[in-house]
Write a structure and sequence with these properties.
Belongs to the small GTPase superfamily. Rab family. The protein is α/β, with parallel strands linked by helices. Helix content is about 30%, strand content about 25%. The protein has one domain: Rossmann fold (3-Layer(aba) Sandwich), CATH 3.40.50.300. The chain is built from six helices and ten strands; from the N terminus they run βββαββαβααβαβαββ.
């Protein structure tokens, strides 16, 4: 299996078309771990414990006819783990910012406001998508991940097309082949000017970079980290 990194997304042959790394960000106890387990295993744990460091799980699904493998990283919310968890943000192409609607402080820590209407307005202002979810009731969890994966894929596709168009607009470099001297002299005697250019054109390679998408999630039920 061959893996090619294109910017911050990974394009993979054979088993799947793309590998997207997404991180879950938010305070401890807002429900990040249960959101992850609901999406990847369709499970919910009432006695979920706080994550120590980082954990991750994967799930493969179809996005606009492409097979996408989502690699979801669940980061610890406690302050003492911030230095460790922030290192795992590298290479991520998406982020789910999770807060508990019953705890205003968790909103403030991700710089969002607690009422749904205000959170929606803030999300629109910052160019984010806003959803209220419940891992306990399996409400909107699937939609949240489907939304961010679709956003990321569309960004990747748009940048690939833009790169191809840019490459196509650049004059191709090639080799100029001139006719032999006697042919030029004969053409000049006949009153003609001769110049023959043969251009070797290389197929443009699409370059993808700076692919990012963010989604603000309001977790309705406080259900562990």
């Amino acid at each position: 299996m061959q893996i090619q990194r294109e910017g911050m997304a990974y394009k993979v042959d054979h088993e799947y078309d793309y590998l997207f790394k997404i991180v879950l960000i938010g305070d401890s106890g807002v429900g990040k771990s249960n959101i992850l387990s609901r999406f990847t295993r369709n499970e919910f744990c009432l006695e979920s414990k706080s994550t120590i460091g980082v954990e991750f799980a994967t799930r493969t699904l179809q996005v606009e006819g492409k097979t996408v493998k989502a690699q979801i990283w669940d980061t610890a919310g406690q302050e003492r783990y911030r230095a460790i968890t922030s290192a795992y943000y590298r290479g991520a192409v998406g982020a789910l910012m999770v807060y508990d609607i019953t705890k205003k402080q968790t909103f403030e820590n991700v710089q969002r406001a607690i009422p749904e209407s205000e959170a929606q307005a803030m999300a629109e202002k910052d160019g984010l998508t806003f959803l209220e979810t419940s891992a306990l009731e399996a409400n909107n969890v699937e939609k949240a991940f489907q939304t961010i994966l679709l956003d990321i894929y569309q960004i990747v596709r748009k940048k690939a097309l833009a790169a191809q168009e840019a490459a196509a607009s650049v004059p191709a470099k090639g080799t100029t082949i001139k006719p032999k001297k006697e042919k030029i002299e004969k053409a000049q005697r006949d009153g003609l000017q001769v110049k023959l250019d043969i251009i070797a054109i290389n197929s443009p390679q699409a370059l993808i970079h700076d692919c990012t998408s963010s989604l603000a999630l309001a977790e309705k039920t406080r259900s562990g980290n």
